[in-house]
Amino acid sequence: MKPIVKPYVALLLIALVWVSCKKPDEPPIDCTPPPSNSGTLKINFNATYNGVPLVLFTDYTTVENHRIRPEELRFLVSDMWSEDSLGDSIYIKDAFKYDLAAGVISATIAMSPGNYNGLGFSLGVNAVKNHANPAIYPLGHPLAVGPMHWDWANGYIFTMYGGKVDTSGTGTGPLNITYGFHAGADTLFSPLPLFPHAYSIALGSTTEINVDVNVAKFLSNVSDTIDLRYDNVTHTFSNLPLAIRFMNLYKLAFSIP
Amino acid sequence: MRIFCFITAFMVSMMVLMECGQPEVKKNTEERTATTESDSLRIDFPSHFPKPNIPSENYFTEDRVALGKEIFFSTVFSYDGKISCASCHIPELAFADTAIISKGVNGRKGFRNSPSLVNIAWHAVFMLDGGVPTLEMQALAPFSGHDEMDFSLSQAVEILNNDKELTALSKKAYNRIPDAYVITSALACYQRTLFDGNSRYDTYVIDSVANPLSASEKKGMQLFFSEKTGCASCHGGMLFSDYTYQNIGLYEHYADSGRSRITLRVKDSGKFKVPSLRNVSVTAPYMHDGSLKTLEEVVRFYETGGKKHVNKSHMMKKFTLTNEERAALVDFLKTLTGNTFTNDV
After folding, report:
1. Does B181 contact A15 at a Cβ distance shorter than 8 Å?
2. B-chain residue closest to A239, CA distance
């Protein structure tokens, strides 16, 4: 080989080696989710009115024979928990925002397969969560900035229940009273006792628990009745006694059949 | 020679092809890595003021302040596209307003007088009833307030994310695309740069020989700090406020429950956060509801000792001033107004 060619051959070889050492194309991103090692618990909060599914802008009757038309139902639950097969408490979800008008009525939770007992949760959020900055949560999070946060009072509205009512007693009078119960304050935070309910979670499948929310009981039970003729609006800070009465009734409206 | 050219050309081609096959290298010139405290902007707060409340996670950077300023003055974040923060917090009025009650979207009125934002960095709590604990959280209320901007933060986030420049600024400032956290943090960062410590009173305190007060102003100062008036009991310190909540007996029956709206305690009814008196000569009208129009009216009110109210502060006592003394007190209050209402960075 002529001497003048040798260096160029060497360079060519170097180039070829360089090319062959080029990193192989990275494999395409695999969008398939990794194999699941959990199952799903789906908690359905089923709003009813004395056993009948609640439909907003539909008429129902109160104990005082008033015609009531609920138009808004939203609430926050938090600190959801259950018991595993050993009887140990396990925390399963920090918060869930129910919004009937938006169709957000079920909380979906990934859980390890196994046998469980009971479902517990709190109505509203505890004081720490209640005074956190909602801007730290991404939009879409139950505790993110939104209509269920009292921005001026640094706290969440635990429950928003409102609509219109005809208090004539005839059932055909005008729906001329607007009622609204916006309850939320640290003192109104209500952890509920564990609802006994045995269930199992299987790998890759969904188990459902239905929680009945009897809206009729928001305003009446054996211990108290809120008569909308006289007591129909509270934004908590504007009428704390009524907010307390409402919450005391409200927390008894939840059950697992 | 031909072989030489061929081989050289071949090698160059191979190398070019190799480079073309490489994945694109992300350039960091436009998208900086995370902002760190080493990027922080030095703000020279008045040395004779106490240390301001600056949260460590929202330290100052040029980008954060710039973003906050953009948002503060932008009217796009309001229902009618006409209201910005600056609509009710006017820079040349020490970021307050001349309206008794400022108007929000569609001319809607709230129920309280707009407070000044100057020296807001020294406030421990926010709103006249102390309902909001941080400046970062304070912005949430006017954004969503029906009588203010009546806008949702999610809409604001969407607008910002559709703005390439502001999205880029958000990434530089907070290393994330615009979201609720960025908006509220940037606004707070900007507002903390609004301070003023160069009033005539300040220059007098720093050098009373070079910057004397007039005889009337000095007389007024003496009255202000005297036991007779007791002004300094609440409006003391360099910020001319202790930021406590006080009921001054403005009314026998308050339409606005004040602090008790937040605490739900009856004993807090009619109490409001003590405002700073800095820049007071440009922040009329006065009181939580803007009910007193002039400083003279305010002084005359305090002379009455306030109306009867079960929660009235024990510090409210009747006193008498001559016309000359009243004028002197007002003259002194005017020396608390500086001439720097913005701090361009």
Report:
1. no
2. B264
